[in-house]
Amino acid sequence: MKKRITIVPGDGIGKEVTTCGKNVLDHIAQAFGHEFEYDYASIGHEAIEATGEALPEESLATMRKADAILFGAVGHPKYDNDPTLKVRPEQGLLKMRKELGLYANLRPIKLFDELLGASSIKPEVLRGADILFFRELTGDVYFGERGRKDDGNTAYDTMIYHRYEVERIAHKAFKAAQTRRKKVTSVDKANVLESSRLWRAVVQEVAAEYPDVEVEHMFVDAAAMKLIQNPRSFDVVVTGNLFGDILTDEASQIAGSMGMLASASVGDSVGLYEPIHGSAHDITGKGLANPLASILSAALLLDISFGLKEESECVIRAVAQALKDGYRTRDIADKDTPSDKILGTEAMGNQICKNIRMLAAVDSE
Ligand code: IPM
Ligand code: MN
């Protein structure tokens, strides 16, 4: 198979982890006889410094030509500490999602057994948890009208949803549930918000088309509690942009660490794959970042955009093997991890590539 992939490293640890994700794609291409060609595109703080824009037109044009996109992270502390700056790295990410029509963000929360001890949640609560989040990605308060009143002392952001936006993500969630444990939990705040009441009504309508799937509606505050109390009670969760942003950071603790969570953003055209973690400037350049979220994002890319199930599975097995062999990055290590098993970003990436070579050789025998 011949494919073109755009690599968008972005800021902070985005660069380090995306290098590992790309290496994994190269190893898969080599082991399974595919040809992947790469382009690079800039975004975020880096792009602002170079061009004044958080997502230059040239980057978008490159992405539009791609068969899939592997993205790192955006952000820089300079902007976090100065809310007056007009051009901000995150605008690049939001524009990229909107321009490419990436309205569905899939965030699978699955715990590798080896990491049961890495979470602050009790192992008996976690064991067997397997949740697939569908976070709506191009609507909500992220894209509604916002502004500041003339006196500067009043500000507003509008939470807004259109019927078609809820319909299309709900269909994706129900279809996915049909291939899983056949349950969808729709999360909203319909006891307070009008946009949530529309959301709930539309999800109820869509649900009627999937009689084989059980549907449950939950308020976001209750969902936040239930996720930690009984994560196994969830199968597919579908929710709006803001609630999905918050709940998936929370749910990352079910997978042991934020450094483990991959995501896929899909919609109208090309698919985009990225870790759910941010640019983490506090550890940038120190070789401490966990590359597994980017590597698992590459696995999602192979599966969802290219339909390469066996190759995707090989990446996941390579990760599981590294964990089974006791290797950890610092974020997923515990007090029992021997120091020689604690790997830096590059070493963990290399370990996964080594496992891919080994697994592919064994499978072809
Ligand atoms: C995410 C991030 C982004 C979001 C930020 C960086 C704008 O937190 O992808 O979850 O809020 O969507
Ligand atoms: Mn987030």
Give a verbal description of the structure.
With 365 residues, the chain is of the alpha/beta class. It folds into two domains: 202 residues, Isopropylmalate Dehydrogenase, CATH 3.40.718; 151 residues, 3-Layer(aba) Sandwich (Isopropylmalate Dehydrogenase). It is built from 13 helices and twelve strands. The strands form two sheets. Strands 2-1-3-12-11-4-5-10-8-9 form a ten-stranded mixed beta sheet, with helices on both faces. The chain has a two-stranded antiparallel ribbon with strand order 6-7. Helix 1 packs across helix 11, helix 2 packs across helix 5 and helix 7 packs across helix 8. The protein is globular and about 60 Å long. The mean pLDDT is 96. Bound molecules: 3-isopropylmalic acid and manganese (II) ion. The site of 3-isopropylmalic acid (IPM) has 6 residues, from helix 5.
Q: Beta fraction of the residues?
A: 15-25%
Runs in which pLDDT lies below 50 for 5 or more consecutive residues are: none
- Please write the CATH class name of the largest domain: Alpha Beta
List the ligand species.
Answer: 3-isopropylmalic acid, manganese (II) ion
From the N-terminal CA to the C-terminal CA, the straight-line distance is 22 Å
User: What's the CATH H-level superfamily name of the largest domain?
Assistant: Isopropylmalate Dehydrogenase
Spatial strand arrangement across the major sheet? 2-1-3-12-11-4-5-10-8-9
Binned, the helix content reads 40-55%
Shape: globular
Return the structural class: alpha/beta
The ordered H/E elements are EHEHHEHHEHEEEHEHEHEHEEHHH
Major beta sheet, specifics?
A: 10 strands, mixed
Average pLDDT reading:
96
CATH architecture of the largest domain: 3-Layer(aba) Sandwich
Radius of gyration: 20 Å
Give the total of beta strands: 12
CATH topology type of the largest domain: Isopropylmalate Dehydrogenase
In DSSP terms (H or I, runs of 4 or more residues), the helix count works out at: 13
Give the total of domains. 2
